[in-house]
Design goal:
Blueprint: H1 26-80, H2 85-214, H3 220-247
Length: 248
């Protein structure tokens, strides 16, 4: 006879391992929960079928024992009452009726037993399929978790790289601003110096013009020298203006 291995609090809550699913799609969670509920219903149906099978087997055993006991009583009764033909006929008729009834019960129980065995095999196959489906779901969830961990690691590395690039950019920008301020200050200083040189040259030219106007010397060489100096001052002034225009 089959033993009932599905009792003794096998399906108690403390015997199950729960899997925490964080941030999974609702459809995946619903499918997983439906699969677990279907597996639980199948196991409950299987347990009820096993109990019925056990009851039928107990009844079959009782019928077999009763039939064996009736057969023994028939043998003893036939040995004791060989003298009376009518009693023998009546005992044979009762024995035949008991044998027919026992045979009918055995056939019915055997039919029920075969039906329950076939149903038990079907439930076992369905249970195996559900277990395989649950295993595949667990493997899929495990793969998704590993993929999520890898993506999280990649995001952390990308965030670190972006932070490093941002810090480097801020340092370069700060350095550029400092250099820009230094060059602007330097340009202002050069402009101031050029303006000072231009003013000095203007004053010198005016002074020379005054001196030339006041000078009435007839020395030709001296006048040529003065004109050369004036020309040089003029060209130097033009160069200074060009330099100034470059810094504007």
């Amino acid at each position: 006879m089959h033993q009932n291995y599905y009792g003794n609090n096998l399906f108690a809550p403390e015997n199950f391992k729960y899997v925490e699913i964080n941030k999974q799609p609702a459809a995946t969670c619903d499918n997983f929960l439906n699969g677990v509920l279907n597996a639980k219903n199948i196991l409950c149906s299987l347990e009820r079928s096993l109990k019925k099978t056990q009851n039928y087997e107990d009844q079959l055993l009782k019928c077999q024992c009763k039939h064996f006991h009736t057969t023994n009583e028939q043998h003893v009764f036939s040995n004791k009452n060989d003298s009376s033909e009518e009693k023998c006929v009546s005992s044979r008729s009762s024995e035949d009726l008991a044998n027919d009834w026992a045979s009918m019960n055995v056939v019915c129980l055997k039919y029920h037993y075969e039906e329950l065995s076939a149903r038990y095999d079907v439930l076992l196959r369905e249970y195996d399929e559900r277990c395989n489906l649950e295993t595949s779901h667990k493997e899929t969830i495990s793969r998704l978790r590993n993929r999520m961990k890898r993506n999280h690691t990649n995001l952390i590395e990308a965030n670190k790289a972006l932070l490093a690039v941002g810090e480097k950019y801020m340092k370069l920008r700060q350095k550029k601003l400092i250099e820009k301020e230094w060059f602007e200050h330097r340009i202002e200083q050069l402009k101031q110096r050029i303006e000072d040189v231009v003013r000095t040259a203007e004053r010198a030219r005016l002074e020379l013009d005054d001196q030339l106007n006041n000078c009435h010397e007839d020395n030709v060489s001296l006048s040529l020298l003065v004109e050369e100096v004036l020309l040089r001052l003029y060209y130097s002034e033009e160069d200074t203006k060009q330099m100034k225009s470059l810094f504007v």
